[in-house]
Amino acid sequence: METFSDLIIVAFIVSVLVFSIFHSNDSFKSFVEGVKDGIRVSIRIFPSVFALILAVEMFTKTEALNILIGLIGPVLS
Fold this sequence. Notes:
By secondary structure, the protein is an all-alpha fold. Helix content is about 90%, strand content about 0%. It is built from three helices and no strands.
C-alpha cells in the first residue's frame, strides 16, 4: 500500500509539471504565490488551532472527560 501512495504522489507531481509545460505556465511563480498564501492562512488560523489543542489537553488532563462520561454514560446506555 505504501508503494501505491508513493506512485500517486509521483504521478501528481509529474502531471502538474506536464500541465505547466503544455500551458506555458510559470510554475515557480505559482508555487511561490501558493506558499505565501499558505503561510498567511497558517498564521491566521494558528491561534484558533492552538486554543483548540490546549482546551482538549486541559479537558483530558483534568479528568473532566471521565466526570462527563460518568454523568452521561448511564443516560445513553
